[in-house]
Amino acid sequence: MDPRVVRSVACVVFTLSVGGCARVAASVVTQDEFAKLTTGMTLEQVQDVVGAAPVEAGKAQRSDGKLEERFGWTNADGSSAGIVLLDGKLVEKSSEGLE
C-alpha cells in the first residue's frame, strides 16, 4: 500500500481519537487558527497561534533516531485538530469539523 495513503489514514484516525483524550472547552481551536499552522513551526509557535496548549497523544523514537510527537485539541462540539512534530518541527496536521 502507498505509504502516503497509510500516513493519511493514520492522521485521520489520530485526529478522531484525540477527542477521547483531550480536555474539552467551548472553542480550543478554530479553522482560522488551524489554517495558520505551517510546516516547520515549533510547538511553542503552534501554541502561540492556537492560544491553548494541546494534549500530548503520543511520543516515539523512530528507527531513524528522530523523535515523533503527536498532539491534539478537541472542542466542546467534538471538532478537533491534531499535529505531528518530528524532532520538534511541525510536519503534519489534520482536523475534523472545525469552524
Structure characterization notes:
- The chain has 99 residues and is α+β, with helices and mostly antiparallel strands.
- The protein has one domain: 2-Layer Sandwich (Beta-lactamase Inhibitory Protein, Chain:B, domain 1).
- 32% of the residues lie in helices and 33% in strands.
- The protein has three helices and five strands; from the N terminus they run αβααββββ.
- Strands 1, 2, 3, 4 and 5 form a five-stranded mixed sheet that branches.
- The longest helix has 19 residues, at 3-21.
- It is globular.
- The N and C termini lie far apart (33 Å).
- Mean pLDDT is 84; it is low at 19-25.
Notable traits:
five-stranded mixed beta sheet, alpha+beta, Beta-lactamase Inhibitory Protein, Chain:B, domain 1, 32% helix, globular, 5 strands, 99 residues
Secondary-structure-derived class: alpha+beta
CATH topology: Beta-lactamase Inhibitory Protein, Chain:B, domain 1
Q: Summarize the biggest pleated sheet.
A: 5 strands, mixed
Helix content range of the residues, please? 25-40%
Pick out the low-confidence regions.
Answer: 19-25
Overall 3D shape: globular
**Mean of the pLDDT scores?**
84
Q: How many distinct beta strands? A: 5
Give the radius of gyration. 13 Å
